[in-house]
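note to self — DONT lose this again. spent like an hour looking for the file last time. sequence + predicted structure for the chain T wanted, 272 res
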Amino acid sequence: MGMKSYVTLVTNADYAIGAQALERSLRMVGAQWPLVVLTLYDGPELEALEAAGCTVIPVRPVPVSDDFRRRHSRPEQHRRAPFTKGTKPTFHDPLDNFAKLRLWELEQYETVVFLDADVIVIKNIDRLFEYPEFVAAPNLYETLADFNRLNSGVFVAKPNRRTFDRMLAHLDRPDRFWRRTDQTFLEDFFPDWHGLPYIFNTLQYVWFNLPALWVWERIKVIHYQYEKPWEADHPRRQLLAPVIEVWRHIYEHGVLPERLTPPQETLNERAD
């Protein structure tokens, strides 16, 4: 049996905080496989991750042209494809996202399950290692049309340098603009991607947009897309308070809160 690992990406001090909560959540659910942290960042939080048993691997940004970097800079990306559904934190740099592709260089692992650093695992997901490449959940958080789009916060991959080389050749082409960076790229590179149930990558906006789908007994992974749960203040902090509390409790105590609050609309429906 080949080696397997969970993998995340840390690009700055904020995502290092997220990675700490992710590691604690994997430990909480008894994950069989360790966490590898790919990092563009060099800070004290990495020592804490190593002390917790993570393998920390420094990586460089993927090699792209100056034109590519200009097209995908934060100002240009927000101008050409503005985020109208939520607020991206100021520490988010779209170019950093492409470093995620470095995981295909990790040929020491037969299979990896990638998890964004703004994700927590609340039920064991080791079964994902038995899935093929390329498996990901839909970008579901508003309407049924979201099922047609991939979300790259959780996916299964088979590291292979030949795949990585093909990705680089596909990535940086004249005037190509990846609207949602690595997410749009992976959807294009793997057009026949296999769809996981949304419970393996439950986006936090499901809480208020599609509350009937927020069933604690079934959800395995929560993904804090847009605003981050460790931000001191953000526009949806009150709206998402019960979901943020789950992240905070795992980060601080390594366990789930004793009580998980259902969405208000779901409570009303049950009352009927």
